[in-house]
From TrEMBL:
It comes from Streptomyces varsoviensis. This is SH3b domain-containing protein. Keywords: Signal. Residues 46-70 are annotated as: Disordered. Residues 1-34 form the signal peptide.
Amino acid sequence: MNLLTKRARFAVAATTPLLLLGAAITATAPAAQAASAGINACTHPGWSNKSPGKGKSKSGKASVRSGPNKGCTLLFSAGRTYTLYYHCWVKNSAGHKWTHLRVDSEGVSGWVYNKNLDDGGSVHPDNKC
């Protein structure tokens, strides 16, 4: 066996596991995306400041998320001492109402599930996002 043949065989032996690993990662990626596309998939609806309301966390901490679903990224946990300034509300794919708000003292804006707010959040029809 000449030197060129040995190098070619070595190259094939060294790269085959990497190619198979890449194929395995590619094959599993759509399944991971499909799992996150369910009822808790994170959405990012538009919002505007339509509400003059404000409130507090109902009990413990209200999770301020990047979108109106529990599958969305947690941005901040607002305890009862924080004043939450409402912007507007939406109903998510599960039929639950979420309020977009800001935690002024922390410079954070996001979505909180209305059942976690002491007054039920921004629910007036005029305040719908």
